[in-house]
Design brief:
Length: about 180
């Protein structure tokens, strides 16, 4: 693996950890969660030590990485990361997104840092199934449309949801329960 790819992978992993935590505290990766081209992990909140979220990302030729996250309370979101962006943290951007020829959904992308935005998604329902079985995600913001092949999202999203359910269930009951967990 080249240094450029290693650097980019490390940046995405760090960004995913920091951007998708429920609070402004930093997060620590406690286990890997990988599925095909999707790379991610299980994260805790450094301030509390509690489980925060499970997240995974895939990098695309466009230079944009698509990220998905499921939190301790099973809220899910998608995010977009690009090393060349210069966003204002906290700024909100209206977006529209569509999986295949399904319904066009509206959302708000919030800049979590200068390189990444996060879009909270509706509760796990029909839209979750669209992402799992879909082939293409289209996201429109301002005058730009980004397209992502959803290769492997079925397995990856299932792993994220199982991961969040497992870690949330064991949280506080046994501080050693997550030792050795890996979702590779």
């Amino acid at each position: 693996m080249t240094n450029t790819i290693k650097t980019f992978a490390a940046a995405i992993a760090m960004t995913a950890a920091l951007a998708f935590t429920a609070t402004t505290a930093s997060a620590e990766k406690i286990a890997n969660l990988n599925s095909g081209a999707w790379k991610g992990g299980v994260y805790t909140n450094n301030a509390t030590g509690n489980f925060s979220h499970c997240a995974a990302n895939a990098r695309y030729k466009s230079g944009v990485a698509l990220l998905f996250s499921v939190t301790h309370d099973r809220q899910w979101s998608m995010g977009f990361f690009n090393n060349h962006w210069d966003l204002t943290p906290g700024r909100k951007y209206p977006v529209r997104y569509q999986v295949d020829n399904g319904p066009i959904m509206k959302g708000i992308a919030t800049a979590k840092n200068p390189k990444m935005v996060q879009v909270h998604l509706p509760p796990k329902d029909r839209m979750f199934r669209h992402f799992k079985i879909g082939h293409t995600l289209k996201v429109a913001a301002d005058n730009r449309v980004m397209r992502f092949k959803l290769t492997g999202t079925d397995r990856m999203l299932s792993k994220l949801y199982r991961c969040a359910t497992q870690y949330a269930r064991t949280q506080g009951k046994d501080p050693f329960s997550s030792v050795g967990f890996t979702y590779d």
